[in-house]
Design goal:
This protein is mostly beta strands and 410 residues long. Helix content is 5%, strand content 50%. It contains 2 helices and 20 strands. The strands form 2 sheets. The protein has a 17-stranded antiparallel β-sheet that branches. A 3-stranded antiparallel β-sheet has the order 13-16-17, with no helix packed on it. The longest helix has 14 residues, at 7-20. It starts with 6 loop residues before the first helix and ends with a strand.
Length: 410
């Protein structure tokens, strides 16, 4: 059956090697996923035409888990990556190490025969959307990720556009607005795949799962908790399992996302909370026999000063996987990101503030054994009014998983 987005399910899976060992109440487990990959793409030469279209990198994901009794546990997800490794790394051809603590929290769980409640505090994956828990290369049957989790927009959290004309003159990957803030930013991504500091409550039982999260910053602009100028905000989600292998869900978030240095540029009497980012989404997962599918629909709105109709974006994708043999599978994903209209307080309006983006990826994978996986995929990325195949990517990955440490204490 497909995994649900409820984090409690992921934690239960990671604790399984500990709990099987004589059901000890104390233990440590460190699952690891190691991946190496290469790609061929003209994205590498966008900044420097002399750059080779071939590159390679690797990623290590560590998931240390500590069981501290019948109810308490600790969990972390830590990434070390040599880029370019992921497809969205390829816009920067220089090799560089990245280290990210994606999750790191303390949890308390209570279970009955039919229900489970988990409370968590620390660095958390966003409660919005369903893809973040499939970010591991062994869980993702393809090599890339859906657009709303990786694609930067021609909007920015550190700059204020003067109006529609300013907004429409921006480009993906470089934003330089003129009415406040420091220009030259890369733009924001609607939903982060990395961590947010906060607290969360998860519930599952009677075919229903739910989650409520309070964080220090927006999924569109994650910030360390020690920085000033942050405002608490919420994200929530819920799902219903119609039958085994078939689940539908919804999620939402809302809260301020603009950077604190923009406060002097805001209209009199307003605060950062007057201009929130809002996301709503629906998702579904289905599996039967050799076939499985998942998909999401999301709408994002980013309120700005100077606008009567705020810029918004709709993102959607569908993913299909077919298990051809016990070891070999085929998978595909099609996704779209469609910017909407906007209007400013001078009466100027536009039907679409930025070009649409479409992404199509086909992949094949083979399990060498139950711990080692080889994948290859080709992705077509199309931006409206940009013909050609310079943004396409051909990639391969080798993935291996193992437990570096399993220890129980009586």
């Amino acid at each position: 059956m497909l995994k649900t987005v409820l984090t409690a399910a992921a934690i239960s899976g990671l604790l399984a090697p500990i709990s099987r060992a004589q059901e000890s109440d104390l233990g440590i487990s460190v699952p690891i996923t190691l991946s190496a990959g290469g790609m061929y793409t003209q994205r590498l030469s966008l900044a420097d035409p002399g750059t080779s279209p071939f590159t390679a990198g690797f990623r290590a994901m560590l998931y240390p888990t500590v069981k501290l009794g019948k109810h308490w546990f600790g969990y972390a997800a830590i990434e070390t990556r040599l880029a370019p490794y992921l497809y969205y790394d390829a816009y920067e051809p220089d090799h560089e190490f990245y280290n990210n603590v994606i999750q790191a929290f303390v949890g308390y769980s209570v279970q009955t025969e039919k229900t489970a409640v988990v409370i968590k505090a620390g660095r958390l994956a966003s409660a919005f959307g369903s893809f973040p828990l499939r970010y591991d290369d062994a869980e993702n049957p393809l090599l890339d990720q859906p657009l709303s989790y990786i694609q930067t927009l021609s909007l920015d959290y550190g700059q204020i556009p003067c109006g529609v004309n300013d907004l429409a003159s921006q480009h993906y990957g470089f934003v330089n607005n003129l009415c406040g803030g420091q220009g030259g930013g890369p733009g924001l991504t609607p939903v982060t795949l990395y961590g947010l500091d906060g607290v969360e409550v998860d519930f599952s039982g009677y075919h229903v799962d739910g989650r409520l999260q309070i964080t220090n910053s927006s999924p569109a602009y994650p910030q360390p908790i020690q920085l000033t100028g942050e405002y608490a905000q919420w994200a929530a989600g819920a799902g219903y399992t119609i039958r085994q292998g078939w689940r539908v869900g919804v999620s939402a978030f809302r809260g301020p996302y603009l950077d604190a240095p923009l406060i002097p540029f805001l209209p009199a009497g307003s605060t950062l909370r007057s201009f929130p980012a809002t996301g709503i989404g629906a998702d579904a997962q289905w599996a039967r026999g050799r076939w499985s599918a998942t998909g999401e629909w999301q709408r994002f709105q980013f309120d700005y000063p100077n606008f009567t109709t705020a810029p918004s974006v709709i993102s959607e994708y569908g993913e299909l996987k077919a298990v051809v043999t016990p070891r070999f599978f085929l998978a595909g994903r099609a996704g779209w990101m469609k910017p909407g209209g906007a209007a400013d307080n001078t009466g100027v309006s536009i039907g679409q503030f930025a070009p649409s983006i479409a992404s199509y990826e086909l992949a094949a994978g083979s399990w060498i054994n139950r711990h080692q996986l080889v994948k290859a995929s080709y992705e077509w990325l199309r931006i409206q009014n940009m013909p050609g195949s310079r943004l396409d990517v051909l990639g391969v990955q080798f993935v291996t998983t193992f437990h570096a440490w399993d220890q129980t204490f009586r």
